[in-house]
Amino acid sequence: MTPRTFKIKSFGCQMNVYDGERMAELLSAEGMMPAAETDDADLVVLNTCHIREKAAEKAYSDVGRMMREDGTRPLVALAGCVAQAEAAEAKRRSPMIDIVVGPQAYHRLPGMVARAARGARPVDTDMPAISKFDAFPQRRRANPSSFLTVQEGCDKFCTYCVVPYTRGAEISRPWADIVTEAHALVDAGAREIVLLGQNVNAWADGNRGLADLIRTLATIDGLERIRYTTSHPVNMSDELIAAHGEVAKLMPYLHLPVQSGSNRILKAMNRSHTVETYLATIEKMRDARSDIALSGDFIVGFPGETDEDFEATLKIVDTVRYASAYSFKYSARPGTPAATMEEQIPREIMDERLQRLQERINDHRLAFNRSTVGVDTQVLIEREGRHEGQMIGRSPWLQSVHVDTNARAGDIVDVTLVAAGPNSMTGTVRRAVAA
Known about the structure:
CATH topology of the largest domain: pyruvate-formate lyase- activating enzyme
CATH architecture of the largest domain: Alpha-Beta Horseshoe
Number of strands: 21
CATH class of the largest domain: Alpha Beta
CATH superfamily of the largest domain: tm_1862 like domain
Strand order of the largest sheet: 2-1-3-4-5-6
Helix content: 25-40%
Mean pLDDT: 91
Strand content: 15-25%
Low-confidence stretches: none
């Protein structure tokens, strides 16, 4: 029987969230309705991440829980990077998986669902050009802060990373297609657009780069904020840095992963930047926008990492003073060069280093939040809070801000930040700005 309802569960990065939204639009265009819960769905799509082992294992674990008490189960589609990396293995590991579709082929999901409903078990991990975007329906509904993919794939080949193998080579969407989708998102209610890419600042269309795209998007009436993620240090051009000081709608926030504070480890990771070049980029950014909030990614326990290498990572955290950062234990991914390197670090050492790193990051995050207490700013309201009359939104520096207000999601309110916690801020309203 053809499914009438669907549930999409996305794991991992923001690009997976975007992909999940587009798959939902494709299925809705076929007449299917979104289900609130997995148990209510005729089709469940697990949109997976393969960056870390735990993320992949969680997807398989979820598949195992699909069987219902009455002995029935939904059709199960394994999508995303785990599907791309483990297509044949996925079906062997879980016979309950009916459909396997990679991240560059999910525009063909509706047809695959129809075949699965007739008893087939289709697999599509083809990696065509970025033509999948041509298959999507027009954006008709949008969140106050909405994602827009502009670039996919990666040519950097960091030795720990599976992205070049699961997402393919770097490819940029055409200028006109991005601008058209941005207009559609704003017409559908978006006040902020977050440009996405594995290496988003590598986006190019002819002689135009991301800075040119941002300047053009900033002219769209009704679009109040622009962000982008995730960037690679080697692609932080002077033009893009300058845009942070010149484009008012480009928010004062930059996520720029460094991964390690040790040049020896960076070389082993094939990161193509050094601590010195990274810090020089940070200095340029702060010269262009003095109130910039910086975020980063860190991997602890990379093969061969010594105590001295780890101390160098703590040093760069103290030097940059990140407003936020993500940190992870190294996870060996099959097929990557790092997985077969000698001197794999014992789990207990990684655990201890990660705890120390996160404590240091948390100290700087709290210090940054405290530095903004008393600041008058604007908050984009995104959703209701836990308490009556409370709403939650984002400051320009991507802080989560709790505000007592009658404003609705999508409104931008003028607030004064009055209290800081380790993970959020409290603001008081000065006046509302009409949506």
